[in-house]
Amino acid sequence: MLDDVFFRELTAAESALLTTATLENLNWCGERFSAIDVSTRSEFVHYTILDPYRGDFGWVAEAGNEAIGVVWAQHLPPDDPGYGFLDEDTPEVSLWVREDWRGRGLGRALLRRAQDDARTRQVPRISLSVEADNYAKNLYLAEGFVDVPGREADGVMAWSP
């Protein structure tokens, strides 16, 4: 199913891809936010910046020279936390798969790359945030993520290698 997919490391120069991915992640259940929201609202804009010097990392899936999915992990600071923020040592993961590529195992393949990276980098755990009725939660559960006690209402989950 993924024979035509090429995986490569995400670079800091790909903020346009992260903007698209963030917007589509926010609008997973219908249009709620705009590209202007993602570019101007502080609670969203930090998701569009990959900073390798901070320890951020990620992967892009491509088919036919087009990005069809991306996973990225960010060490966001306490004064600008993400929805799944736990602490400075726990990078928060975001995952996006283009709609026409969903259901083929691409999200799982990307998530596993992020988990492998976390192991290699000796990151103690990674976190994420997912809305309760988002079908992606089933993927996260299947890949070993668990609800963070006390943060269940926020949809915060964590995985440890």
TrEMBL record:
InterPro entries found in the cross-reference section: Acyl_CoA_acyltransferase, Bact_Acetyltransf, GNAT_dom
UniProt keyword Transferase present: yes
Segments forming domain N-acetyltransferase: 5-161
PROSITE patterns, A to Z: GNAT
GO terms assigned for molecular function: acyltransferase activity, transferring groups other than amino-acyl groups
Transferase among keywords: yes
Keywords: Acyltransferase, Transferase
Protein name: N-acetyltransferase domain-containing protein
Organism from which the protein derives: Kocuria turfanensis
